[in-house]
């Protein structure tokens, strides 16, 4: 039997993409999210296998919100951050009333694995009513095609990191030029917008 509060939770999800300069940006952004954030947070940071566990541990230590390297079959819960394992694509899948993390060893996309487009596209088939997307520092354009695809199926809100605060203004620039987000904003503002959009419990 699903409790009323479980039904109320799970209406929204936060999905973050980052690459070059991302670990530093995430160490600034994630500690600004409260432990009672009323949404799960998925992160794709371009990294090879073996490095993401340490990054998740560091973020967990720095942040009030719980952070972990996502494991196959993890249930997406509010107030929890799931960092994609390096070297594997991560997606969300609907399973009954819940959403789970699934991994794939499909070839790299956009030259990377994990690929943010893969994560964003998977959310189109989930029952979240709204997806809050944040695209942070990074080379290339990963995230843009996935968010474009997601926009056809879901209500989305997209925030891009500002050029002045990026190590590499590639991925955020791409979503801004595609008209998917407004102008870039600081990591502090992105954190405020995430909280404002998904709320706390």
Structure description:
The structure is a single chain. With 201 residues, the protein is of the alpha/beta class. The chain contains seven helices and eight strands. It is globular and about 40 Å long. The protein starts with a helix and ends with a helix. The N terminus is likely disordered.
Question: Number of helix segments?
Answer: 7
Separation of the first and last Cα atoms? 21 Å
The main pleated sheet reads as: 6 strands, parallel
Residue runs with pLDDT of under 50 for 5 or more positions: 1-9
The average pLDDT is: 95
Q: Count of DSSP E strands?
A: 8
Please indicate the percent range of residues in DSSP E strands (runs of 2 or more): 15-25%
Quaternary structure classification: single chain
**What structural class is derived from the secondary structure elements?**
alpha/beta
Q: Taking Cα atoms only, what radius of gyration do you get, to the nearest Å?
A: 15 Å
Dominant shape: globular
Query: Roughly what percent helix?
Result: 25-40%
Query: Which H/E pattern describes the elements?
Result: HEHEHEEEEHEHEHH
Strand order of the largest sheet: 3-4-2-1-7-8
